Amino acid sequence: MTRPRRARTPAVPALVRRLETAYGWRSWRRRRASGLDQLVATILSQNTNDANSSEAFRRLRSALGTWEAVRAAPVGRIERAIRVGGLARTKARRIKRILDIIHERYGRLSLAFLADAPLDEARAALAGLPGVGPKTVGCVLMFGFGRPVLPVDTHVHRVSMRLGLIPAGTSAEKAHELLQARVPDRLVYAFHVLLIEHGRRICRARHPACGECVLADRCPSAGRV
Description:
The protein has 225 residues and is mostly helical.
């Protein structure tokens, strides 16, 4: 009896091309925000949805205006401003501590130096801040500075495992290392945003729409999850 052929894991460039055919081309663009804005926004996005984290960021800036004012404010004042984003006490303390550390280390509240620092040094500078893991490091460097550092969120993690780009059961932390090595620098942005879109639309955590997937013929998991 002949066994059905198992789909081969697609090469990343071919995968990106197919997803661009489905969802449109994604040009690499930096967000109109400072690196520090991006860092705080990413912290606020942890364990909540985009709408709530965006509103928490807006309220924080509306209430206190500048990062210098946020750093000088009592934790309770920060907490009240960001409450809509959830985990307000933890995030308020973390934000205030991070601002203190940045000021102590660099003499001002700015991460502009990350634009030109060697990539390993830029990663290390962010990773040394409290509560800043590899996803936050990637978001700040990729979105804030246009640097080829891949953030792995829940969608990127799930879709990558289903496609066989990383082994089943790979931790989120390990996934950053493995995918960073696999994805060409020029495709880091497109890979990130397209896998998120695909994960939301088709390759959902529950009941993925494999019959509608443009990658189904190259997906080892098609029809099995």
